[in-house]
Amino acid sequence: NAGVTQTPKFQVLKTGQSMTLQCAQDMNHEYMSWYRQDPGMGLRLIHYSVGAGITDQGEVPNGYNVSRSTTEDFPLRLLSAAPSQTSVYFCASSYLRQGSSQHFGDGTRLSIL
Amino acid sequence: GIQVEQSPPDLILQEGANSTLRCNFSDSVNNLQWFHQNPWGQLINLFYIPSGTKQNGRLSATTVATERYSLLYISSSQTTDSGVYFCAVVRVSGSARQLTFGSGTQLTVLP
User: Fold this and answer.
1) With 70 as the cut, is the pLDDT of residue A52 above it?
2) What is the pLDDT of residue B97?
3) I want to staple B4 with a disulfide (CB 3.0 to 4.6 A). Which of A10, A42, A58, B102 is the partner?
4) Is 90 exceeded by the pLDDT of residue B99?
5) Other CB atoms within 10 Å distance of the CB of residue A90
């Protein structure tokens, strides 16, 4: 019963480097999303997807790309890391139907030097 | 966009005490969830409660959608209850299911 799995748990990058944060869920959820959490704040939506092949922007999408080639996976790409992207990143998934609560992964702590 | 305010921002309790956390939101919502973020940073679902009252052990929650607030009750608090409690609301707009989070209540339970 894995739920939502995020890898890696920790990562340190240099400014300008690129990387991909992985997210996988085994609950056959249609809806997947990425959030970032900055100190003392709640989570803010970066990108979301309602199914394979469909993605859209959230509240803070700049500097991030996503794709959804399968129902299970929803990777988040940082194209050219900047110190402002230092944050904790959470992936979440849910069914699309009304009444479905969102389930979160354990997060990826990312530091950009 | 919708505003979500939580109070109090910080709360310190002695083990065994009861507490009430409040979440106010500025517009009608489709869903409301309460989360506990433990000291390891994990977000744990507590309740999905767009309206009405639910109970789970020592925790219960009530949402009065018409008055745009929700309350989380913690009874007989334990040190393991420490962490940040977030309220998050959802307004369904087309295909988006964006959760808008409050800034949280930091709870510390002392032994």
Assistant:
1) yes
2) 72
3) B102
4) no
5) 26
